[in-house]
Design goal:
It is built from three helices and six strands, in the order ββββαααββ. By secondary structure, it is of the alpha+beta class. The N and C termini lie far apart (about 50 Å).
Length: about 120
Amino acid sequence: MAGPAPRVFRPETGMSGADIVRRGPLEINRAAWRATWNGATVHLTATEFRIVDRLARARGIVPHVRLLAIKRPLRPFRHESRTINCTVRRIRWAFRVHDSGFNAIQAERGEGYRWRE
């Protein structure tokens, strides 16, 4: 008798929907935890990847800064809006490595951020 099937580690098992998301030159492969811009892999941390994923999926709405924060189990929720702002700045830098004119993330004053098509 074979033992139980091996478990596959997925950091955020609550992810639903298609594994591939395309927004213009952005392609997100959720199964592989990979983001590409114009076909070039963008190197993101897990937190940065989740924020890009949430922004790309929020078509037509602006997720509030608090909704972009990632709650980690066994840790209190301590993300301040400035922390999210710094993370978004690092995300922009990561995309500008491949495209110096990158401007797909738009800040909405007092609300959050939007992924521009």
